[in-house]
Specification:
By secondary structure, the protein is of the alpha/beta class. The chain has one domain (about 40-285): Collagenase (Catalytic Domain), CATH 3.40.390.70. Helices cover about 55% and strands about 5% of the residues. The chain has helices at about 1-25, 40-55, 80-100, 105-110, 150-175, 180-185, 195-205, 215-225, 230-240, 245-265, 270-285; strands spanning about 55-60, 115, 120, 130, 130-135, 140. The strands form two sheets. It has a four-stranded mixed beta sheet. A hairpin with a 5-residue loop joins strand 3 and strand 4 (about 130). It starts with a helix and ends with a helix.
Length: about 290
């Protein structure tokens, strides 16, 4: 008799359990928002023109998990983001790279996510961060709200940031020759933000930030080369330095940068430099 009662109550318990589940399922919607996000015209354009052909995600709407929580930052205005994406990212970066370096190179090594921030990222040292590269996958670009197709200097500044961060990514895949680090090995300094232009010219550095470390030096050399015309670049390397020794140091670095991209990635930096200059001219003249 006792055994029958145990079986009876067990059956009731199981029945009630399934009955409860059924009632819970009938309660309706999830506590989470499962409504599909509505794509704007810009979202659709990004998907068709950047995500599908290049597997590239552009994030301009705010995601606090993607930003630096220690900074006071805001998202870009959509109109500014649209101009930045269609002009700088597409015309000024992707098109020249795919034309000179090839689609396979760009798709394989380009960052897969670009996160746009509207405002400036200030540092406690008094400097500002223009962009960052993370784990060879993500690039963050700041000051997008200041985008202006008529301001050539600012366009070059944006492009310098993109080229600098992209160089870090390809260096993570194949490092530059250790010989590069030896060219100005005694000149690197932790207080690079205190380095003057005159000191840089005298010691063989293309910018103050290039004196921070060999890695930043290589990225700055590349970025400066790709954001100056051939004649402007020759002036920076051959004429602007304060001495023949400084000229020789910068020319050696230039040689090693050109060799790196030619030997490892198979394209000519001077061709890419010319294509980048054409892109900037096209953007500013529209």
């Amino acid at each position: 008799m006792i055994r029958k009662l145990i079986i009876f109550f067990t059956v009731i318990g199981v029945t009630c359990f399934f009955s409860t589940c059924a009632k819970e399922d009938e309660m309706g919607s999830s506590i989470f928002d499962t409504t599909p996000a509505i794509r704007t015209e810009l979202d659709q354009w990004i998907y068709q023109n950047l995500t599908i052909p290049y597997n590239l995600e552009i994030t301009y709407k705010w995601k606090y998990t993607e930003s630096e929580l220690t900074r006071n930052l805001t998202p870009p205005k959509e109109l500014q983001a649209e101009g930045f994406i269609k002009n700088l990212i597409t015309e000024g970066w992707i098109n020249p790279y795919t034309k000179i370096a090839g689609l396979n190179f760009f798709n394989k090594y380009s960052p897969k996510q670009i996160f746009l921030v509207g405002t400036t990222a200030y540092n406690s040292t008094g400097t500002i961060t223009l962009g960052t590269a993370q784990a060879g996958r993500k690039v963050v670009i700041y000051e997008v709200n200041q985008f202006d197709t008529k301001n050539k200097d600012r366009l070059r500044r944006y492009m310098k940031t993109i080229h600098h961060e992209f160089t870090h990514i390809v260096n993570q895949k194949v490092n530059y020759d250790v010989e590069f680090e030896l060219v100005t090995s005694g000149g690197y300094r932790s207080d690079w933000n205190n380095a003057t232009e005159a000191w840089c010219r005298e010691n063989g550095f293309i910018t103050p930030y290039s004196s921070a470390s060999p890695t930043e030096d290589f990225a700055e050399m590349t970025a400066m080369m790709l954001t100056n015309s051939a004649s402007e670049w020759r002036n920076l390397i051959d004429v602007n330095p304060s001495s023949a020794q400084a000229v020789a140091l910068l020319q050696k670095k230039e040689e090693l940068v050109v060799q790196y991209f030619k030997n490892n990635w198979g394209f000519d930096m001077y061709d890419l430099q010319a294509e980048m200059e054409n892109a900037i001219i096209k953007i500013t003249n529209q």
